[in-house]
Amino acid sequence: PRWLTRVNLLDVTLQAGAQVDLQTPAGHNVFFVVRSGTFLEPNGPATGEYAAPKAIIFEAVNQPGLARIRAGSQSLRGVFFSGQPLNEPVVQGGPFTGNSEQDISAYKRAFARGEMGQLARSF
């Protein structure tokens, strides 16, 4: 399918004050979702901490580079994502994301009919 693209996903755990540099392929969009603990801006001051839950967006790069993940004063747990952008329109509606308002309406109808399955509680 036209929207099939490889996505890199890493589960990251760091002790307080630790950091890791992750390779980012050229042209990939990159973001990190903080699940628990605190995160420091990659190149910012040590006082700029963010607490979970928080999504950190890294700028897309035109050449290979590094994404720096830095734990703050608490240990950090999160998920790192990178992937080639699809370069398609993005429309959001509630918990759904699609390419058009028609997509969002169709997703809402499918959800109401129970066609999207169920997730068990994880806690």
Secondary structure layout:
Layout: E1 7-14, E2 19-24, E3 29-36, E4 38-40, E5 49-51, E6 54-58, E7 65-71, E8 76-83, E9 91-93, E10 96-98, H1 101-112
Antiparallel strand pairs: 1-8, 2-7, 3-6, 3-8, 4-5, 4-7, 9-10
Folded structure, characterized:
The structure is a single chain. The model has no long low-confidence stretch (mean pLDDT 83). The chain has a 4-stranded antiparallel beta sheet, with no helix packed on it. A 4-stranded antiparallel beta sheet has the order 2-7-4-5, with no helix packed on it. Strands 9-10 form a two-stranded antiparallel sheet. The chain starts with 6 loop residues before the first strand and ends in an 11-residue tail after the last helix. 10% of the residues lie in helices and 44% in strands. The longest helix has 12 residues, at 101-112. It has 123 residues and is mainly beta.
